[in-house]
Write a structure and sequence with these properties.
- The chain is mostly beta strands.
- The chain has a single domain (6-204), classed as Hypothetical Protein Pfu-838710-001 (Beta Barrel), CATH 2.40.320.
- It is 15% helix and 44% strand.
- It contains five helices and nine strands; from the N terminus they run E-E-H-E-E-E-H-H-E-E-E-H-E-H.
- It has an eight-stranded antiparallel β-barrel with strand order 1-5-4-3-2-6-7-8.
- Strand 4 (72-80) and strand 5 form a beta hairpin.
- It is globular and about 50 Å long.
- The relative contact order is 0.25.
Length: 207
């Protein structure tokens, strides 16, 4: 997905993987998927929250990300298991020291007027494979992420590194049992479902 503004439903599953994990060939899942278009991106995201971490405690994340086809400001709100609503605005709507007003307004009931400030930086080397249908329509994206994360709310905090696999359904795609098939393939290759709903939650230990 390349839109940089608007609202989007994001349905994805996250997996923890060892450094030497080999991403399996996901072509042929459900007898229809083709794995195409391997691409690599370098992403740098600054995450914002209150001093009390009100957002992440409510499973909400707010970030300013540079790099990749959907760089910009991203506010992610929980909808149901494995699904969040993502509200995006362009980078031009706010600088690193100023969260866009329309995103601040979306969470004002949670923050109760407490200021938002940077709490973490996550740098990610991401390799993406697109799963397409027989007609070439996108069904899902599989992202293989090498993450380096640093807390800003703890002086002297050392960077934390891990590897994570994300499988995200293309918005509006009829994925049927594709996510389940990908789940089985990844588990058989040695990955395991992540207990954390977000990278930031993993870093902060909030789930």
């Amino acid at each position: 997905m390349t839109d940089t503004a608007g609202k989007h439903l994001e349905t994805e599953r996250k997996y923890d993987a060892a450094v030497d994990f080999i991403l399996p060939d996901l072509s042929g899942l459900e007898g229809r998927a083709k794995a195409t278009g391997r691409r690599r991106y370098y992403l740098s995201a600054t995450y914002y929250d209150t001093e009390e971490l009100d957002l992440i405690k409510n499973r909400i994340t707010l970030r300013r990300r540079v790099g990749g086809p959907d760089e910009g400001w991203h506010l992610k709100l929980p909808v149901r298991k494995d699904t969040r609503q993502e509200v995006r605005t362009p980078l031009s709507e706010g600088d690193p020291g100023s969260v866009p007003a329309r995103l601040t307004a979306q969470v004002q009931d949670i923050t109760a007027g407490r200021p938002l400030h940077p709490i973490a930086i996550l740098d990610t080397e991401r390799t993406v494979v697109t799963l397409t249908g027989q007609a070439g329509e996108p069904l899902a994206e599989v992202a293989d992420d090498l993450v380096t994360a640093t807390r800003l709310d703890e002086p002297g905090a050392q960077p934390v590194k891990w590897r994570e696999i994300e499988v995200e359904a293309a918005e509006g795609a009829n994925v049927g049992g594709l996510l389940e098939a990908a789940d089985q393939a990844l588990r058989e290759a040695g990955a395991r479902r992540s207990p954390s709903a977000s990278k930031l939650g993993r870093l902060l230990g909030t789930g």
